[in-house]
């Protein structure tokens, strides 16, 4: 089927997460229409807790290409880059202040909900079909049809993009892989109005993040733009912890007291983060990932981006950045193929298929590196005896690996090792208590 103009291109995107909305926005900028099908009923249907740090060469680059950088800057929190890394005795290994403005190596934080709002608001009305959960994708006569959970069909489409997250339904058409349990899970919750109600806890995050690890366990707190602290306790545990322990997932207080039992030998200033989570507001979550280096044989007219393509745990803070980079690259590939079809009066499908193969190969390569980095960072903190004392150098260097200018890794590594050697030998003491 040859296209006479860009409006003839028929692109369906399943999922209005960061990957799907970024792709739709970028296509809109290129005058190519697309429709997003999103299972959630509306933008407000689910609280999108948590904060995401966008990186200069990936997430922020996509935001810029989407023409949303000014809007993004209104909500990005450069002071959110502040970062404290401690162990269970509240001995601080690394403390970094936040910054005040954009830098090439900046990783400003933005609330997940705010990022989604910006992207959704930038698209034409009705380009997102809220409350439509896609059940099946079926190929017919070289085109694709979608059917939803209510039995309604949508289509036909030249291209269907599965941006439908961890448990993607589109993935099964491309790959036999399914996410496996990563070996860690935990409880999450918010502390509202932390600065006023819990100034000491608020100060621990220093408007950014507080991370503490020991004995395969962690407690973390991250400041959100609305003044909440997003707190998690994550630890190495078998899958289905709640079921095995007869815990009701809806009973936040039961989750809190069960989780706290694993932290009795932790500094109480750290565990008080868990204590302070708003009453009843705890949720339990197991973390899953796809195998490092996942790839599939190309199927014309179908592809995946974001977590659907390469789900990983959040320990390197790369998932959203990779998802938005996928969207950026894919938008360019689609745009080029559509223009190619119009300019040469040739069928879009073979042109698109050839381009998609190239896109997928690049994505597989890029994702494999980040998946490995994420796995390493998780292993350094949760599955290596003596962590963080024994692993902090490797953890820090892995975290920084993609930020360092070419040829500087050895120098930064030397400085980092020297700094941490001195710190560990002479200065690693529990933080003094302040009354
Ligand atoms: C606890 C936690 C903390 C994280 N922290 C960070 C971080 O700090 N930094 C970072 O970079 N990454 C982080 N991540 C990872 C990041 O959230 C993901 O990588 C990112 O959201 C992926 O975006 P996505 O659009 O691919 O998928 P998602 O955000 O999962 O979006 C998928 C969308 O598809 C919809 N959907 C699913 N199935 C269907 C269907 N059948 N029909 C219609 N719609 C459907 C869903 O409702 C959802 O809206 C974290 C993840 C978790 C779990």
UniProtKB/TrEMBL annotation:
Annotated FAD-binding domain residues: 9-194, 302-341
Protein name as it appears in the record: FAD/NAD(P)-binding domain-containing protein
Species of provenance: Microthyrium microscopicum
Keywords on record: FAD, Flavoprotein, Monooxygenase, Oxidoreductase
UniProt superkingdom: Eukaryota
InterPro entries reported for this sequence: FAD-bd (IPR002938), FAD/NAD-bd_sf (IPR036188)
Keyword Lipid biosynthesis: no
Xref: Pfam families: FAD_binding_3
Lineage, highest ranks first: Eukaryota, Fungi, Dikarya, Ascomycota, Pezizomycotina
GO molecular function: FAD binding; monooxygenase activity
């Amino acid at each position: 089927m040859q296209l006479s103009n860009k409006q003839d291109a028929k692109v369906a995107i399943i999922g209005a997460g960061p990957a799907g909305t970024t792709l739709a926005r970028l296509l809109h900028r290129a005058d190519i229409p697309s429709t997003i099908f999103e299972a959630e009923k509306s933008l407000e249907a689910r609280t999108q807790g948590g904060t995401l740090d966008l990186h200069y060469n990936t997430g922020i680059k996509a935001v810029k290409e989407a023409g949303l950088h000014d809007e993004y800057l209104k909500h990005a929190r450069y002071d959110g880059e502040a970062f404290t890394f401690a162990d269970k005795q509240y001995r601080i290994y690394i403390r970094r202040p936040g910054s005040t403005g954009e830098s090439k190596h900046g990783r400003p934080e933005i609330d997940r909900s705010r990022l989604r709002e910006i992207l959704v608001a930038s698209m034409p009305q009705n380009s997102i079909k809220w409350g439509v959960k896609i059940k099946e994708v079926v190929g017919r006569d070289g085109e694709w049809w979608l059917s939803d959970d209510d039995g309604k069909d949508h289509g036909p489409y030249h291209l269907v993009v599965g941006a439908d997250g961890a448990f993607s339904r589109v993935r099964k058409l491309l790959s036999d892989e399914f996410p496996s349990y990563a070996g860690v899970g935990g409880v999450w919750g918010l502390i509202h109005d932390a600065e006023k109600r819990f100034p000491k806890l608020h100060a621990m995050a220093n408007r950014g993040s507080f991370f503490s690890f020991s004995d395969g366990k962690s407690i973390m707190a991250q400041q959100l733009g609305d003044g909440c602290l997003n707190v998690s306790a994550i630890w190495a545990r078998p899958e289905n912890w709640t079921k095995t322990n007869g815990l009701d997932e809806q009973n936040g207080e039961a989750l809190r007291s069960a989780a706290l039992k694993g932290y009795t030998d932790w500094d109480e200033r750290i565990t008080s983060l868990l204590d302070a989570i708003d009453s009843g507001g705890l949720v339990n979550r197991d973390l899953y990932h796809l195998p490092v280096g996942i790839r599939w044989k190309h199927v014309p007219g179908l592809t995946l981006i974001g977590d659907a393509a390469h789900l990983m745990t959040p320990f390197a803070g790369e998932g959203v950045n990779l998802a938005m980079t996928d969207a950026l690259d894919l938008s360019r590939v689609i745009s080029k193929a559509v223009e190619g079809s119009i300019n040469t009066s040739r069928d879009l499908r073979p042109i698109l298929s050839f381009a998609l193969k190239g896109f997928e190969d690049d994505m597989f390569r890029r994702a494999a590196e980040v998946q490995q980095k994420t796995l390493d960072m998780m292993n350094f903190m949760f599955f290596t005896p003596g962590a963080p004392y024994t692993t902090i150098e490797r953890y820090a260097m892995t975290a920084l690996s993609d930020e360092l200018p070419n040829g500087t890794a050895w120098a930064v590594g030397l400085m980092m090792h020297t700094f941490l050697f001195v710190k560990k030998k002479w200065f690693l003491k529990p933080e003094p208590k302040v009354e």
